[in-house]
# Entry
Amino acid sequence: MARTQGSHSDITGPRIRAAALSLFARHGYAAVSMRQIAGEVGVQAGALYNYTPDKQTLLFELMRTHMEDLLSAWDTEAPQAGGAMVQLEAFTRFHIRFNTSRAEAVFVSYMELRNLSPENFELIEGLRRDYETRLEAILRAGAEARVMVVTEPRIASMALIAMLTGVNTWFREKGRLSLAQVEAVYWDMVRRSVAGEAGLGA
Amino acid sequence: MARTQGSHSDITGPRIRAAALSLFARHGYAAVSMRQIAGEVGVQAGALYNYTPDKQTLLFELMRTHMEDLLSAWDTEAPQAGGAMVQLEAFTRFHIRFNTSRAEAVFVSYMELRNLSPENFELIEGLRRDYETRLEAILRAGAEARVMVVTEPRIASMALIAMLTGVNTWFREKGRLSLAQVEAVYWDMVRRSVAGEAGLGA
# Structure
């Protein structure tokens, strides 16, 4: 994307992204103008175009960055050793922690898929599939090692991701349960959902 | 809400609701004007106000109707006999079928919560809680009868509903699996997610 290098743009870029994300989350992409984003940042609308060619690119870059951050964070955090159940527990806890810490980006990434151009939609869908495939591989490995029962690994990966992302709709920092406790409750359900009879001993 | 009775309004009302739902789903509530909705229906903007006092009321009525339809459909369909596992299977299949058949209303109901006035938000949240409570009661009954293991019935109900609603994000009528097959895959996961060792015999 067109981007002016240099200190001005290096400082302004993150502020533009933050303002756009917050405004898109609050009002929806279609209802937010470049002028509004500029106003939130405290620059002239024209200054935005030094940073991004248009609103579509701004939305796409927000969603791309979110998905790439998610992928690289998991790839860094995924256990290097341990079987499929160890991987699945790590994935479960990682997904809840990452997504609750970026609720606005998660919301916009789901809600604004409809507002991406067809080419941009394909690219974001590809990244989303990459992430789902990480979980699918864990489920396939678990089924192969006979520590899990998973008849449809692809569908199971989407089902579990939807379940885990759902934490965002109700979790509050000051609620009855800490995030660690929430992780434990979900991990118990995830574990059971793929466990054969042998896997429920614990 | 203010509503002119009579044949004109009786015909126009459903068309206004359908147009508003479709436009809100496509562009988002904030980006859609009453004029646009009127244009889609083929009436003057002024005619809309015979039907609804404002756009907020229109959104609220769409969401209220959706939640009330969901609740009354489940209350009609819930098995009159059978234990908690029978109820849970019926709920699982019902939720997937109802929600995939009304994808736009489900999407708007989730996405536009942020655009409800505080009082309207409370009312819709109350209906949502009523629905979650139906599932929670099944899980509590199952745990009490020792046919299920559910440590946190409230959280489990939200987790399962999120998982089941997720079908909407990927299911396509002409896909590899029929809706009945999808129901079966999800029911297997739901059943396992709450099953103790004894429950996995099948």
Notes: The longest helix of chain B spans residues 118-144. Chain B has two domains: 1-53, 55-200. Chain B has a mean pLDDT of 92.
